[in-house]
Amino acid sequence: MKLDAIPVVAVSAPGPHAALTGNAGVVLREIAEKVRMLVDAGEASTIDLLAMPLTAADLDWLRESLGNGETHISLNAGGESRLDETSCPGVWWVTHHNGQGGVASAFIEVAVVPELVKAPIDDVAAGLDRLNLLISDLS
Amino acid sequence: MKLDAIPVVAVSAPGPHAALTGNAGVVLREIAEKVRMLVDAGEASTIDLLAMPLTAADLDWLRESLGNGETHISLNAGGESRLDETSCPGVWWVTHHNGQGGVASAFIEVAVVPELVKAPIDDVAAGLDRLNLLISDLS
Q1: In this complex, do A89 and B117 lie within 8 Å of one another by their Cβ atoms?
Q2: Are B113 and A119 inside 8 Å of each other by CB?
Q3: How much is the ipTM here?
């Protein structure tokens, strides 16, 4: 399928997408700027989606526009966090849930890898101590 | 529960764990050395589990000893890959499946973050081109 054969959703038009405010397009432009910063300067950044004037329809449109990528991460520290790469590599849709399963926060993270996935080196060192204890019990 | 109250599996002993060869303990020591390299020198490394003389029971014992961590990653590029952090931060159990769902390879990756999760910067740049195309269609 050619790119120009894909129907384009006019975000500012009324009709079947009446709940769209046009703000999702603005966020999409901001994401593109941040991806440019990542490519040009290696600089990672985030956008707090719940702090933006976006309706549920805007969020759906944004998510659909960004598409679904290959990498999906779940992380459980208290509530569950989901970090889904979009079809734009380096653009991650991050959702943190509270203990009751509700959405506590939602971000776009523009980064080679989301910060939360990286094991803090202090934790790695503490884990090594436990590993050495386990090994000393073997012999 | 105190640490010394946890029953220790004697890997070299016969009996209920007869299929254990003792090699899993050797691999566990190698993992600890590699974690030490990560902590001291920031150097990441991998161990090819299928290239080691490990029985299925050895692998089960190793996996159980390393425990289950907070971060779980699935990645689909052809076959599915699973990258599960163990309870030792920075020690990842990585399994690649072939198109038929069988295990094609299995690794221990000792790293702050598994290499495969990082978006290659060339892919990020290509994604930016697509994003800009999408944005130019909005106006």
Answers
A1: no
A2: yes
A3: 0.83
